[in-house]
Amino acid sequence: MAEKVSGEMSEDSSDSAAAVSQDLRSVLVTSVLNLEKLDKDLYRGTHHWVPRTRRLFGGQIIGQALVAAAESVGENVLVHSLHCYFVRAGDPKVPVLYQVERTRDGRSFSVRSVKAIQYGQPILICQASFHSNQPSPLQHQFTMPSVPPPEDLLTGEELIQLYLSKPDLAEKAKQGLNKLLADEVPIEIKPVNPPDFYRCVAMEPKKLYWVRAKGHIGKGDMKLHCCVAAYVSDYSFLDTALLPYPGQRATFLASLDHAMWFHNTFRADEWMLYETESSWTGMDTYTYTHTHPLTHTHFSPTHTSHPLTLPTHSHTHTHIERQVWTHRDTYTHARGHAKLRAAAFQLVLCVSLPTC
């Protein structure tokens, strides 16, 4: 898929900024999301971004699995949903094989099953459904939250620099923030309500972020934008479940399953508003979080649902869901199936005991 990316440039502001930024294709497409084709429906991924957990980043495995699945369908169909289960931790020292099964090809829909494999065993099982892009006579969605535009907000890196400039900041806190600052990720994030990293105050389990891929992708390959959105969907938003519990810190985080719906065409290199909410936590520390990404044009491109677990020497399960709006002038979003529904995920968190 990486080799098929169009170099077409649009005339919007993000494209003009891209002229002076590093081409995203050198970061995500030619490395992180680039796969080597070994045989029909068999691919290998060798370039891994390794977070501080030293395990494979779940978003990369999801993105690469979607790249492999998309290679087996026609040019006139796009992914509209994917459902993934993380069954084992990934080893960043070992390539990942992606085995695609062509489950069904119909007139309008195609279904693909993908296994990501290491050491002869699956680490991820993914099902993706593709359909031809047809207009719908029915359109509705939730109202986009009223928030400041991304141009008026600071990036995560700028906020960290702001905290580091505080003269009374403890040395341990400085070390932690410098580790965050050293992480090189191809994603730009601007929190709408910047967190106070060291304030022990219970908050509603809900966050709003402006998010986009760094660099330039171009508008010529919608499949690639979907793969990049899948990569982004598993990054950095899962601590939403801990906001009501000040003083507890996630020392371990592992996704269990991840579902994502694509409601509309969009660009992953343009600003999207991520509305992330943890709707439930409990049952041996299990939490459910959902995210609703909205584009700067105000339509919902994706929806994500993400359950996770977090033990304090027991397991906590949580559900996280995201809603995404794009940053433009019009929008269309629905929590269930509008035109792009971020992602729902289940994951496991290890939580330290309260310190407040």
UniProtKB/TrEMBL annotation:
Give start and end of each Acyl-CoA thioesterase 2 C-terminal domain.
203-278
The highest taxon in the source lineage is Eukaryota
Q: A GO molecular function for this record?
A: hydroxymethylglutaryl-CoA hydrolase activity
Is Iron there in the keyword field? no
UniProt keywords, alphabetically: Fatty acid metabolism, Hydrolase, Lipid metabolism, Peroxisome, Peroxisome biogenesis, Serine esterase
| Residues that span the membrane, as ranges | none
Q: Which GO terms describe its cellular component?
A: peroxisomal matrix
List each copy of the Acyl-CoA thioesterase-like N-terminal HotDog domain by range: 48-131
**Catalytic reactions of this protein:** eicosanoyl-CoA + H2O = eicosanoate + CoA + H(+); acetoacetyl-CoA + H2O = acetoacetate + CoA + H(+); octanedioyl-CoA + H2O = octanedioate + CoA + H(+); glutaryl-CoA + H2O = glutarate + CoA + H(+)
Q: Where in the cell is it found?
A: Peroxisome matrix
For whether the record's keyword set contains Hydrolase, the answer is yes
Q: Which InterPro entries match?
A: Acyl-CoA_hotdog, Acyl_CoA_thio, HotDog_dom_sf, TesB_ACOT8-like_N, TesB_C
Task: Enumerate the Gene Ontology biological process terms.
Answer: acyl-CoA metabolic process; fatty acid catabolic process; peroxisome organization
Q: Which Enzyme Commission number(s) are listed?
A: 3.1.2.1, 3.1.2.11, 3.1.2.2, 3.1.2.27
Q: Which family does it belong to?
A: Belongs to the C/M/P thioester hydrolase family.
Q: Which PANTHER family match?
A: ACYL-COA THIOESTERASE, ACYL-COENZYME A THIOESTERASE 8
Q: How does it assemble?
A: Homodimer.
Protein purpose: Catalyzes the hydrolysis of acyl-CoAs into free fatty acids and coenzyme A (CoASH), regulating their respective intracellular levels. Displays no strong substrate specificity with respect to the carboxylic acid moiety of Acyl-CoAs. Hydrolyzes medium length (C2 to C20) straight-chain, saturated and unsaturated acyl-CoAS but is inactive towards substrates with longer aliphatic chains. Moreover, it catalyzes the hydrolysis of CoA esters of bile acids, such as choloyl-CoA and chenodeoxycholoyl-CoA and competes with bile acid CoA:amino acid N-acyltransferase (BAAT).
Name this protein carries in UniProt: Acyl-coenzyme A thioesterase 8
Q: Which organism is it from?
A: Oncorhynchus tshawytscha
